[in-house]
Write a sequence for this structure.
């Protein structure tokens, strides 16, 4: 193919998408396929770099192109990233002309023309071929750039040292554009690139660093544990032989018996290789970062759990960051896997490899037993197709074992009160997960892992664990709460944005999920709000990511002569709830009566159910009077939050007092 000529490599986004450049996605390229995880990671990484140094450049990878005879660039590699960057430039107002075109895909080209012609970066084209593009636009607008904050969206005015995020994105985000010669055989190019494999991932490099610190006889045992822990979507006990299960987790597979690598026989067939060996043998291929290798064990025939349907809420590289932070709580360790190697270098002289693998296995055991996993229902094509599971291993006899709910109704008093311990724990965990869904910066997960690690306790009861979770939830409420300055609104007083909590679309999602959680826990005591309050226990937390105005802004604007002052109360907390993106699209222009009658079905959050109930009880009306009444009830609910959560008398060590 000849030597590749590389010129003018580094180009910022402004230059990549200026009017001198036109990019063509050829027919042989697959359709756009990025989902939330990839888009979220890209945006959050760029934002993190902007926060750390708004004057520095941030390199986001390469774009390989072939220059056609007419001067257009045919995209050979990097089209997924280029497509997302193109969408962002329009949303930020950097570029208002399409620079990305598609060979023989008229529906996609129509989509981009409509998208760039719109003033607000919206697009109503609804072809099956453009569904992922339309979803990507919604995601870019709604994704929280800073996982440590509740509302930090790309469309907001964000500045750092006088530089806006828009300016930084245009001038300091750099893409390395590589032009291959025009006589390149593209098929041969792809074959060569595929045969080269990919670079070592950070967690593989870390593994080799840690192994190099061990004596030879301990390396195989270390590698075996690491490999099992890395397969984070599969229950940890399933990843070991029967003999290894007993030595790590006890005879019932539900304990933690690891003490040191030296205690175990070094009979593993797993080879521990250095970085040089791995690179020289070219063994690392393009694998999922959450999977370190193929499974190394066979399973008992009676283990009938289909683990392929389970999905962890975090990947392995980010989980490793939690282990580092657990080991070194006094250090400034960001919970983001991109810092994995730099954090290792920070603690290298203090880090003991055996202590690390011990904590990794312990944290992974706790994670599997006490943290929910997602179960995807392949038959449900809706946005709300996630279900939740929380399981622990249970030995039935000498030859069989299974997984059962981690918690159950285990006391007579609980049975009499219809208190399902498992359900309450799952509600608390899923409320945190759907609010802080990013795989990075999961501080609530770290707080749980740190508590278990400090107390060296693998078996906790329901009362103790729910107290731990409620402490975390209440702490997050305190972090984001500014409701304390607001008082109930008197009967003769009008709602205004000054005298009430009225943030509209900027309302923290945590607050709305927290309200649903309080209603779920306190369902017996709110019969005055709901005809059948037990129905409030029927919902499951989902990844609802849109804030809905029950009295819709579009509808109120069309009826301004009837509601001339709707701006005073339309964004009030009493008029809001969380719903899915698709539901928001269907409801945006409906009146409250139609919403409550037509859409009061399915899996609805407690607050949404209550607003619909109020609407039905008031002849289909949910306007200023009903909003004010509901708002006052919310203030009362939130004021009683600690009483509602029923602080248990069990004394547990402080979770986050030092933070």
């Amino acid at each position: 193919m000849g030597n590749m000529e590389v010129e003018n490599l580094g180009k910022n986004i402004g230059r990549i998408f200026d009017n001198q450049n036109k990019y063509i996605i050829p027919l042989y390229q697959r359709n756009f396929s990025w989902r939330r995880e990839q888009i979220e990671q890209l945006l959050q990484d760029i934002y993190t770099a902007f926060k750390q140094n708004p004057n520095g450049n941030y390199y986001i990878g390469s774009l390989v192109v072939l220059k056609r005879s007419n001067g257009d660039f045919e995209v050979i590699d990097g089209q997924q990233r280029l497509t997302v960057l193109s969408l962002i430039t329009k949303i930020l107002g950097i570029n208002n002309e399409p620079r990305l075109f598609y060979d023989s895909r008229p529906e996609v080209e129509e989509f981009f023309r409509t998208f760039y012609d719109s003033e607000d970066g919206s697009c109503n084209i609804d072809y099956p071929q453009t569904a992922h593009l339309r979803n990507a636009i919604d995601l870019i607008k709604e994704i929280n750039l800073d996982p440590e904050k509740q509302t930090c969206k790309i469309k907001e005015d964000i500045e750092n040292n006088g530089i806006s995020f828009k300016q930084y994105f245009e001038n300091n985000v750099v893409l390395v554009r590589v032009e291959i010669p025009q006589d390149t055989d593209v098929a041969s190019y792809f074959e060569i690139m595929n045969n080269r494999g990919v670079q070592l991932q950070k967690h593989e490099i870390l593994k080799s660093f840690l192994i190099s610190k061990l004596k030879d006889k301990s390396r195989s045992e270390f590698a075996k544990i690491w490999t099992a822990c890395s397969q984070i979507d599969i229950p940890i006990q399933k990843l070991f032989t029967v003999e290894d299960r007993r030595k790590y987790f006890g005879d019932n597979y539900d304990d933690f018996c690891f003490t040191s690598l030296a205690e175990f026989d070094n009979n593993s067939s797993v080879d521990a290789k250095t970085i040089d060996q791995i690179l020289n043998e070219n063994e690392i291929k393009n694998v999922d970062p959450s999977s370190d290798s193929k499974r190394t064990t066979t399973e008992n025939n009676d283990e009938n759990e289909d683990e392929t349907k389970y999905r962890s809420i975090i990947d392995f590289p980010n989980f490793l960051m939690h282990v580092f932070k657990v080991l070194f709580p006094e250090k400034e360790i960001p919970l983001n896997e991109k810092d994995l190697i730099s954090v290792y270098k920070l603690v290298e002289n203090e880090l003991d490899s055996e202590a690390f693998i011990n904590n990794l296995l312990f944290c992974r055991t706790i994670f599997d037993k006490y943290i929910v996993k997602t179960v995807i229902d392949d038959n449900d094509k809706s946005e709300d197709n996630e279900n939740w599971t929380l399981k622990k291993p249970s030995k039935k006899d000498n030859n069989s074992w299974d997984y059962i709910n981690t918690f159950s109704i285990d006391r007579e008093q609980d049975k009499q009160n219809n208190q399902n311990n498992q359900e309450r724990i799952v509600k608390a965990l899923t409320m945190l997960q759907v609010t802080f869904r990013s795989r990075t910066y999961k501080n609530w997960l770290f707080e749980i892992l740190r508590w278990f690690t400090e107390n060296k306790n693998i078996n906790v009861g329901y009362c103790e664990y729910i107290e731990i979770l409620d402490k975390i939830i209440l702490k997050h409420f305190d972090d984001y709460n500014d409701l304390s300055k607001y008082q109930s609104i008197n009967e003769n007083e009008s709602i205004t944005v000054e005298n009430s909590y009225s943030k509209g679309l900027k309302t923290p999602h945590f607050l709305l999920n927290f309200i649903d959680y309080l209603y779920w826990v306190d369902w017996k005591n709110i019969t005055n709000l709901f005809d059948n309050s037990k129905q409030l226990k029927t919902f499951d937390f989902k990844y609802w990511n849109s804030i809905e105005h029950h009295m819709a802004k579009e509808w109120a604007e069309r009826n301004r002569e009837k509601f001339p002052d709707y701006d005073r109360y339309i964004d009030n907390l009493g008029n809001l709830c969380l719903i899915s993106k698709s539901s928001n699209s269907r409801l945006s222009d409906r009146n409250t009566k139609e919403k409550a009658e037509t859409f009061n079905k399915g899996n609805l959050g407690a607050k949404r159910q209550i607003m619909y109930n109020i609407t039905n009880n008031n002849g289909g009306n949910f306007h200023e009077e009903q909003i004010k009444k509901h708002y006052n009830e919310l203030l009362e609910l939130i004021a009683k939050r600690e009483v509602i959560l029923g602080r248990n008398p069990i004394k547990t060590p402080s979770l986050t007092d030092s933070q």
About this structure: The longest helix spans residues 462-480. Residues 10-196 form one domain. The chain has a mean pLDDT of 83. The two ends are 58 Å apart (CA to CA).
